[in-house]
Design goal:
The complex is a heterodimer of chains A (about 375) and B (about 180). Chain A is an alpha/beta fold. Chain A has 3 domains: about 1-135, no CATH class; about 140-280, no CATH class; about 290-375. Chain A has helices spanning about 1-60, 150-160, 170, 205-210, 215-220, 270-275, 280-310, 315-335, 350-375, and strands at about 65-70, 75-80, 85-90, 100, 105, 110, 115-125, 130-135, 140-145, 175-180, 195-200, 230-235, 245-250, 260-265. Chain A has a 6-stranded mixed β-sheet. A 4-stranded mixed β-sheet of chain A has the order 1-7-8-5, sandwiched between helices. In chain A, strands 4-3-2-6 form a 4-stranded antiparallel β-sheet, with no helix packed on it. In chain A, helix 6 (about 270-275) runs antiparallel to helix 7 (about 280-310) and helix 7 packs antiparallel against helix 8. The radius of gyration of chain A is 28 Å and the shape is flat. Chain B is α+β, with helices and mostly antiparallel strands and about 180 residues long. Chain B has one domain. Chain B has a 6-stranded mixed β-sheet with strand order 1-2-5-6-3-4. The longest helix of chain B has about 55 residues, at about 1-55. Chain B is rod-shaped. The chains are: A alpha/beta (about 375), B alpha+beta (about 180).
């Protein structure tokens, strides 16, 4: 009787022992698996980050190239708060924000999806200054709406689509819709799955968009999105592919009104796409200011180089002297310091004038003198 | 007594089992660490090459002809001289964002730099690049950082130097010393 009681205790103790040890073994393997999974995720995220870094560098190197990057379902966040631009990748624990480091990258605040789209375009004024890199996702929806009352608006909308690379199907293959903001006629835009949407208005005046009180007919195809995920840009009436004025809008919480965030400007078609792909005005203005700073340095370099070339005998000397005064000087002084594209009152409302005087005329003048130098076998200015 | 022996056996087996698992896991972690170190090394090598590529294609140094025509693998000596001045002056802060705490120089290999084949470039020596090299950019990393800036990767790329005044070429290579 005594020994059977002992056996029962022993049996129970054995089971308890097995249970504890079993639990420990299970816990051990679960921990190992969990850690391994995290490591694998981080490795994948690091690979995406490396790919992105290569793309960012590649964009500085080669122009007009469009690529698709496998994202491995990682999200990337772009932020230019206080003009300190950086990006951060999800799933990469312990990795802080990575600075743009002077690179001119234009991207939405959040990149998401199976793949990312990347495209680079050079920015010439008239000499090459830098390359702009645009990033977006095929799952980011863009809808172009043009003002039917402005004759050039439809052509402009078509040009925006036409100049994009084939990989950007989320804009290129979409229809551009003519739309009357006064009547708010239903559009019948098909619904599609996307994580964010951007409405691109072409040819509207500022009060027209800000004063709309019932957005429903316009955004009913985006009903499934949160109000924070819908933004808009208006390429204002009178804008051209070379230069123009843009307005950045967000949506109110009840989705009934657009709120004007910032008014800004673009120079060149590369600048226009920069404004379109940046859904936050800071993500546009800050890298753009960096590009303008670089323009100053590049202009200064060419100016100094041309000054040295002026010691050449005539006729070369003539072309260099003409170029130094006023062309290079104007290019540099108008942008010294680089204007804050949003707040500087000197440029407000008169950007067309600034562009025509400071950029277009000087660029044309320099291009002419450079071709003359080339014709006379003189070293070129740029 | 028998039960105690059996229990002792079980515990001994468990201890050996866990001991083996710990050894196996520590081996695995070591392998992971070494493969991570290889990955980090590759990534830094890639960064050095990326920086070299960045310099290689900069409009500030590249030979150019008009708006669109850019001669690849060619540096304009006049541009190099002026760009060096900008890097040390107004552009110091701006280009630090692109180049960081690294060293960039161009070493001429043919003709011998001593022959002063190209008149528009001044070779200098500060102990880093040597008398036959043109030191474009150098920024010393902070010495008080105990972890970073202790290792260096070097990337080299062949380049032609072009003197636009004399219209002469020389062979050289671009050297980027990437500190991490």
């Amino acid at each position: 009787m005594k020994s059977s009681k002992k056996a029962v205790i022993e049996l129970q103790f054995n089971w308890l022992f097995i249970l504890i040890i079993g639990a420990m073994i299970l816990l051990f393997f679960v921990t190992v698996i969990y850690k391994q999974r995290n490591i694998a995720d981080q490795r994948l995220a690091a690979r995406v980050l490396n790919d992105l870094e290569s793309i960012l560098t590649g964009a500085q190197v080669s122009t007009s190239t469009a690529t698709r990057i496998e994202s491995a379902r990682n999200e990337i966040f772009f932020d230019c708060t206080d003009c300190s631009c950086s990006y951060k990748i999800s799933n990469l624990f312990g990795s802080g924000s990575i600075s743009y480091d002077g690179k001119t990258v234009f991207a939405p605040t959040e990149l998401k999806g199976e793949q990312y789209l990347a495209w680079s375009l050079d920015w010439n004024l008239p000499y090459k200054v830098t390359n702009f890199l645009y990033l977006t996702s095929p799952e980011y929806r863009y809808t172009i709406l043009y003002n039917q009352d402005v004759s050039a608006a439809q052509q402009f909308a078509g040009d925006i689509q036409y100049n994009l690379p084939d990989a950007f199907t989320n804009i290129k293959d979409e229809n551009a819709y003519e739309y009357d903001l006064d009547t708010m006629a239903p559009l019948g835009i098909p619904s599609k799955n996307s994580y964010k949407a951007r409405l691109i208005f072409v040819g509207y005046e500022e009060p027209n968009i800000a004063s709309i009180t019932n957005m429903n007919p316009l955004i009913d195809h985006l009903d499934y999105l949160d109000y924070r995920d819908i933004t808009a840009i208006n390429i204002m009436e009178g804008s051209k592919l070379d230069y123009g004025t843009v307005q950045f809008y967000t949506l109110t919480k009840n989705k009934e009104r657009f709120l004007l965030q910032k008014k800004s400007y673009y120079i060149g078609i590369a600048g226009l796409y920069a404004a379109i792909f940046s859904d936050d005005p800071d993500n546009y203005v800050c890298p753009m200011n960096s590009a303008l700073q670089r323009l100053q340095h590049v202009s200064s370099l060419y100016q100094q180089r041309t000054t040295q070339l002026r010691t050449r005998p005539p006729p070369c000397q003539n072309w260099y002297s003409q170029a130094l005064n006023p062309y290079f000087t104007i290019l540099m002084t108008n942008l010294n310091p680089p204007p804050d594209l949003t707040t500087n009152a000197d440029y407000e409302g008169d950007f067309g004038n600034l562009y025509n005087n400071a950029f277009q005329q000087n660029a044309n003048g320099l291009a002419f003198l450079n071709s003359r130098a080339q014709l006379f076998s003189c070293p070129e200015m740029y | 007594m028998k039960a105690q022996i059996r229990m002792g056996e079980s515990i001994a087996v468990m201890v050996v089992f866990f001991f083996l698992i710990v050894i196996a896991y520590s081996f695995y972690v070591k392998i992971q660490q070494s493969s991570l170190a290889v990955d980090i090394g590759k990534a830094q090598e890639l960064r050095a090459i990326q920086l070299a590529q960045l310099v290689y294609y900069m409009p500030e140094v590249q030979c150019s002809s008009g708006t669109q025509l850019v001669k690849e693998s060619c540096f304009d000596t006049l541009k190099l001289e002026k760009f060096k001045g900008i890097l040390a002056g107004d552009g110091r802060l701006f280009y630090f964002g692109l180049f960081g705490y690294n060293t960039i120089y161009i070493k001429q290999v043919y003709p011998n730099p001593g022959l002063q084949w190209l008149a528009t470039i001044d070779y200098d020596s500060d102990g880093t690049s040597g008398a036959d090299a043109f030191l474009l950019y150098k920024r010393e990393p902070p010495q008080d950082d105990p972890i970073r800036f202790k290792s260096t990767k070097v990337a080299q790329m062949p380049v032609a130097l072009y003197d636009p005044i004399q219209k002469k070429y020389a062979y050289a290579y671009l050297v980027v010393e990437y500190v991490y």
